[in-house]
Fold this sequence. Notes:
The protein is α+β, with helices and mostly antiparallel strands. It contains 8 helices and 7 strands; from the N terminus they run ααααβααββαββαββ. The strands form 2 sheets. The protein has a 5-stranded mixed β-sheet. Strand 4 (247-254) and strand 5 (258-265) form a beta hairpin. 18% of the residues are buried.
Amino acid sequence: MFRNREIRWFACLFLLIAGGTSIASYQIHWAAGILAAFSSCMFGFLFFIFTKGRYRKIAEISEEIDRVLHDADRVFIADCEEGELSILKSEVGKMTVRIREQNNALKKEKEHLAESLADISHQLRTPLTSANLILSLLENHPKKEEREELLRETEELFARMDMLLTSLLKLSRLDAGIIVFKKERIEVKDLVEAALRPLRIPMEIHEVALDMSVPEGVFIEGDFSWIAEGLGNVLKNCMENSKERGKICISCQDTVLYTQITVRDSGKGFKEGELFRVFDRYYRGKDSRTAGFGIGLALCRTIITRQGGTITAKNHPEGGAVFTIRFPK
């Protein structure tokens, strides 16, 4: 306590004042001098006890902070007493919790980054290995027809890698908060048409029928281009998982609380234990036969949720997968 210079100065000043007061009082009357000296001693003693108690609490707070710094699992618990020190302890406790939350978030971010890099390297390794093999075959000067076929396969591989890198770039920009979504009044029917446009030809090739029940005059708010891309990823997933000559049903429901877009396919649906991982990045079903990378649905969820919406997936009782997108009013 006496290491504090202010306390030392106060003690010296108090002794001078108490001594001077006691001497002056003693000169007036000996009883007054004794009373002044006794009062000064009592006041000094009580002040010493009070100050020592405050410094003990400060030392406890300091020790608690030191424990927190050296023990990540320790929780700082503030007491419920009134007073400035209790307020200080409470604020330090809040700061400790906030720092721990930030540290946990940083750890999770590092783990996610490490997992993402591992997944990206794994996703790129296969097409790069195939491209390297094709280039090795081209060195042997095969026939013209074989060379053209190998070149077509190489183009497809590089197109897949370009699609992967483009999707990863979009995800990283969304995660970093770089993209600012527009607030537009979007008609749902136009949105569905825009999402379906790139899939019309593939659906015709695979003879996938479309049953669309989206009334006119239903609107949502958001970024038209991004939501159309997210919905397009859902439709693409449904098309790829539908059986040959399958069917995709799109419906829209407008209520007082929300606007809902439902997409159902005629595929096998999700296996037990896969539903909770449908929107995970890089996840593909165990029996997936598509050439995707497991990014489309993850990108869709990020786009929808960042604009205040929700997306869920489930199995339909009659078979097939059902995706439900909701935007609150």
